[in-house]
């Protein structure tokens, strides 16, 4: 039998990890199905984000899954980690879309990575991801979004979610080091705990317009044309 090369072995391992992480994060990695109307009118016009791309995992994927943003403004998928984003060509895809602004929300799956120190492991790849985006898209601004907290029930079922607070503190420090923006989503989630999906990890459709409005209000970047 012909031996598999190291690069192919690595891709196979990553593919397996995507499947395992997607299953581990609930809902088979898919965003929560809508349980009602989308939004309450408080979100900015979608055109505000016309030149932005959101890079992330299944939580970010909810933006396009619930038709809050167009698919060309979302580059996300179940089980995605910073390492997987680097290895599967997400930076090249970003370059092809030529965004002026990149929002990154990764970490929910990273902290489940089976290694001795998943936080350090994730942030080392997160740093590489930021550097590569800066290199390929030097004029694009970058905003890191904190990992959203999970419910007490979800943390009891998966104790590794107890590392979210530590992860976010170190992610904030990384943002300062790389001179990119960081926005903490914890206050938004705390104000809308009723919008968790049944898994206590993902969110209902109504959460996403609120998220976009919160980002617009919280950003310190130069104001874009609305």
Automatic annotation (TrEMBL):
PROSITE patterns: PROKAR_LIPOPROTEIN. Keywords: Signal. Residues 1-24 form the signal peptide. Residues 54-208 form the SGNH hydrolase-type esterase domain. Pfam families: Lipase_GDSL_2 (PF13472). InterPro entries: Ester_Hydrolysis_Enzymes, SGNH_hydro, SGNH_hydro_sf. This is Lipase.
């Amino acid at each position: 039998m012909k031996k598999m090369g190291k690069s192919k072995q690595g891709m196979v391992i990553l593919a397996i990890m995507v499947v395992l992480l997607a299953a581990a994060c609930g809902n088979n990695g898919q965003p929560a199905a809508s349980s009602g109307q989308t939004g309450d009118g408080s979100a900015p016009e979608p055109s505000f984000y016309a030149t932005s791309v959101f890079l992330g995992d299944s939580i970010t994927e909810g933006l396009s899954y619930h038709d809050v943003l167009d698919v060309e403004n979302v580059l996300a998928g179940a089980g995605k980690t910073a390492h997987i984003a680097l290895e599967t060509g997400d930076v090249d895809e970003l370059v092809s879309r030529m965004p002026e602004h990149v929002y990154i929300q990764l970490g929910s799956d990273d902290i489940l990575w089976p290694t001795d120190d998943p936080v350090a492991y994730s942030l080392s790849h997160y740093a590489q991801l930021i550097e590569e985006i800066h290199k390929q898209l030097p004029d694009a601004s970058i905003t890191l979004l904190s990992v959203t907290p999970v419910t007490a029930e979800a943390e009891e079922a998966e104790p590794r979610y107890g590392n979210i607070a530590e992860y976010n503190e170190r992610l904030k420090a990384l943002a300062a080091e790389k001179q990119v923006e960081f926005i903490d989503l914890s206050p938004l989630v705390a104000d809308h705990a009723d919008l968790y999906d049944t898994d206590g990890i993902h969110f209902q459709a109504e959460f996403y317009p609120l998220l976009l409005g919160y980002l617009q209000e919280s950003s310190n970047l130069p104001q874009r044309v609305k």
